[in-house]
Amino acid sequence: RSGTVPGVGLVHAPFALLPTSFPHDYWRQACDLAPIFSELVDRVSLDGTFLQESLS
To answer: Is this structure's pTM higher than 0.90?
Structure first.
C-alpha cells in the first residue's frame, strides 16, 4: 500500500530481482502485443456487468 501517493491504494512490486536475458524475438513479440493487450484490459475494465458476473 502506498502511504505517500494520495488516491493510490497499491504500488506495483517488481517480480524479478535481477536482470534476465530474454530472446530478442520474444521481446519484439511482447512489444507488438502490448498495445493490443492494453486495449483489451481497458475495454474489460469499462464493462461493469461483465466484471460483476465473471468475478462473483
So the answer is: no
